[in-house]
Amino acid sequence: MLALAPFAARFPFETWLFPRRHAAGFEHAAEPEQRDLAGVLRTVLRRLDRAIGNPSFTLVLHGAPFQEAESPSYHWHVEITPLLLHADPAWSHGLPVNAVPPEDAARFLRDTPE
Is the pLDDT of residue 114 over 70? Predict the structure, then answer.
């Protein structure tokens, strides 16, 4: 599994998890990949907890539609979005605002011990 801060992240500390082997949907993940996902997810959530104080978060599993089970252009992944801007008026109108550059968030999380 690969954990990364996406380019042009919509939210502070937004993190995406990708399997290293291409597959369009999570249902095609082998058992070792599922275990790796669990381990990386645990590590990322523990670092978020230690770095920014156990935030609530949204976790979304993205995969290709079932009719496109073997899509060569889609790679399943998990998006973790900490909920830090609860009262941000821009977000209430559908405009995400990220005050933390993704490269800074990634460095901060990387330097935070598990």
Answer: yes
Cα–Cα distance for residue pair 44/81, rounded to 1 Å? 11
Kindly state the tokens that stand for 91: 């977000």
d(CA 14, CA 30): 26
The conformation of residue 50, written as its DSSP 8-state character, comes to H
How many structural domains does the chain have? 1
- Give the residue among 2, 6, 1 at the shortest CA–CA distance from 105: 6
Report the pLDDT value the prediction gives residue 28, as an integer from 0 to 100: 84
The pTM (predicted TM-score) of the whole model is: 0.77
pLDDT confidence of 104, banded at 50, 70, 90? confident
- Structural domain of 93: 2-111
Query: What is the residue whose two structure tokens read 């011990």?
Result: 113
